[in-house]
């Protein structure tokens, strides 16, 4: 999904960032956040922003550029949070 499609419809936020939850990102999230993911029913909301920002390099910049977006810290944190949700759901 291109950024231009998401930008016009806030309801597509989850779907847009889900495309960045590639297997390597999900595996890294599972490895680096396994304790946090097990401690709460909504851990992606309880993990401090600084922790997410420290993991931003897990999301390849090229994925954002391919979708017409910038690999900003904000975008990467959104992608990581969606990836964590998918890991928790067993996807």
Short key terms for the protein model shown above:
mainly alpha
Q: Can you put this structure into words, describing what you see?
A:
The chain is 65% helix and 0% strand. The protein is an all-alpha fold. The chain has one domain (3-88). α3 (23-32) crosses α8. It is globular, with a radius of gyration of 13 Å. The relative contact order is 0.20. The mean pLDDT is 85.
What average pLDDT do the residues reach? 85
Helix content: 55-70%
What's the total helix number? 8
Instruction: Please state the overall shape, judged from the principal axes of the Cα atoms.
Output: globular
Major beta sheet summary = none
**What radius of gyration results from the CA coordinates?**
13 Å
Number of strands: 0
Helix/strand/pairing class, anyone? mainly alpha
Task: Tally the structural domains.
Answer: 1
Query: In sequence order, what are the helices and strands, one letter per element?
Result: HHHHHHHH
Describe the protein's topology.
Elements: H1 3-7, H2 13-18, H3 23-32, H4 34-39, H5 43-46, H6 49-54, H7 61-66, H8 73-88
Helix pairs in contact: 3-8
Short description:
With 91 residues, this protein is mainly α. It has one domain. The protein has helices spanning 3-7, 13-18, 23-32, 34-39, 43-46, 49-54, 61-66, 73-88.
């Amino acid at each position: 999904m291109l950024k231009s499609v998401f930008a016009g419809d806030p309801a597509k936020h989850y779907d847009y960032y889900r495309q960045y939850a590639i297997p390597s990102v999900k595996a890294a999230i599972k490895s680096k956040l396994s304790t946090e993911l097990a401690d709460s029913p909504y851990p992606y909301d309880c993990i401090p922003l600084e922790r997410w920002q420290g993991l931003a390099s897990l999301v390849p910049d090229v994925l954002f550029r391919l979708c017409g977006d910038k690999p900003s810290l904000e975008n990467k944190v959104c992608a990581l949070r969606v990836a964590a949700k998918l890991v928790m759901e067993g996807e």
